[in-house]
Amino acid sequence: MSLHNLVKLRDVILLALGVFILSGFNPVFADRQITYLGCYQGVEPPKLVTFTEVERISLFAVMQQAPKHECIYYFGASIQQPRLINEQQQQKNDLLNALVELLNRAIQQGESETGSDLESLIAQVKAQPVTGRLLDIDLDLTRIETQALKNRLITTTSSVYLPSRKQPIRLFGLAKKTLPFDAQVTIQQIYENLTLPKFVDAGWIWALQTNGQVKKVKVGYWAHQQDYIAPGGWLMPVIADDWAQSSMGDINELLIAWLKTQTLQLMNNAQEKTGQPNVD
Q1: Residues 14-53: pLDDT tens digits?
Q2: Torsion sign across C-alpha atoms 162, 166, 169, 172
C-alpha cells in the first residue's frame, strides 16, 4: 500500500475514533418512567415513578422504589420493556414457522396423531402474548445490593411485575395446561402422571423456573435424583431428535427461548377475574 493510501486510512480511522469518543461523552439524559404492578393491587393502586433527567438507572434504585408487601414472590418477578416487543414478536413468528414446518412433515408422512399434537402445540404458542420481558435478570433486592454483577442498568421506560407466590405449575405441549403446586412432589413424580405426545423423548423433560433458569431433567424409572419446580414454573417435554430439527433451528431451543419471555402477569390477571387460581 502506498504512503498516500496509508495516510488516508489513518485519517479515516482517526475520524471514526473521534466520533466514537465524542459520542461516548454525550449521553442522552431523559425522564425514565418505571411502573410497578403486582399482587398487592386492590390494596394500593399501581405505582409510577419517574427518574428525572437521567441517562440510566441502576436496578438497585429501581427495586428500592418497588412497593413492599408480604405477598411478593421475587423469584417470579419480571421487568417488561416496550423496546423488546418487536424482537420477541419476530421470535414468536420464527417459532411458529418452525412448528408449521414440522406439522407439514407429519402430514406428508401420514403421522396423523403427531400432527394433531403439533396443532395443539401451535395453538398454545399462538395464544401466548408477546411480553417484552427483560431476560436473565435477578430482581431480589438483597442479591442486587450484595452482588455487583446483578445490579444491571436500566436505560429505558419499563414496567415491573411483582406476582404472588400462589401460582400453579404450568405445562407446555401437553393436554393439561396447569397443575396445583405441591412442594412435596418432585418433577419425576409429576412426569409419571402425564400423557405425552408422540413426538417427545420419553426419558427427559424440560424444567424452566420462573426466573429463567433451565434444566433438562432425567425422568422415568431409571432416574434416581429428585428435582423440583417452583411455583409458576414450566414443564415441557423434550422434542425427540427426529422431530427437533427445522430450517429455523432446533425446536427445543426455540421453545425454551420463547417460554423464557413469558411472565406470571397474564395468569394472575385471569386469576383476579375469577378469584380462583388458574388451574385446570
Answers
A1: 444 544 444 454 567 888 899 999 998 877 889 999 998 7
A2: negative
pTM of the full structure:
0.82
And the C-alpha cell for 241? 431428535
Is the pLDDT assigned to residue 278 strictly greater than 50? no
DSSP-derived secondary structure letter, 161? E
* Grid cell in block for residue 160: 415491573
Place of cell 424440560: 206
- Residue 7 in this model has a pLDDT that exceeds 60: no
d(CA 40, CA 34): 17
Tell me the C-alpha distance between 170 and 184, whole Å: 17
Produce one character per residue of 6-45: b if its CB has 16 or more CB atoms within 10 Å, e if not: eeeeeeeeeeeeeeeeeeeeeeeeeebebebbbbbeeeee
Q: Are 96 and 227 in contact (CB under 8 A)?
A: no
